[in-house]
Amino acid sequence: MTLNYCVYKTNNSYLYFMTNKNNTVIYIVVTSVLLKRVYQHKTKTFKGFTSKHNCDKLVYFEEFTDIYIKPWQEKSN
């Protein structure tokens, strides 16, 4: 499998959710290189939770600059 993309580290971070084809497992994590990490999940580069549970479908992501606040920040009405 060949995937051409630009992988670079930015000051931004991404909160993302991965699941399996049946949507029975959810994996939530933060990274600074979203495309690279999604590719690694899809190709099962590392043996771990996502490869064991076949979490290779990206269902949500959000970009943010403050890794310490944004994921846990409540949205105001």
From TrEMBL:
SUPFAM superfamilies: GIY-YIG endonuclease. Residues 11-77 form the GIY-YIG domain. It holds the Pfam family GIY-YIG. It comes from the Bacteria. InterPro entries: GIY-YIG_endonuc, GIY-YIG_endonuc_sf. Gene3D superfamilies: GIY-YIG endonuclease. This is GIY-YIG nuclease family protein. It comes from Gelatiniphilus marinus.
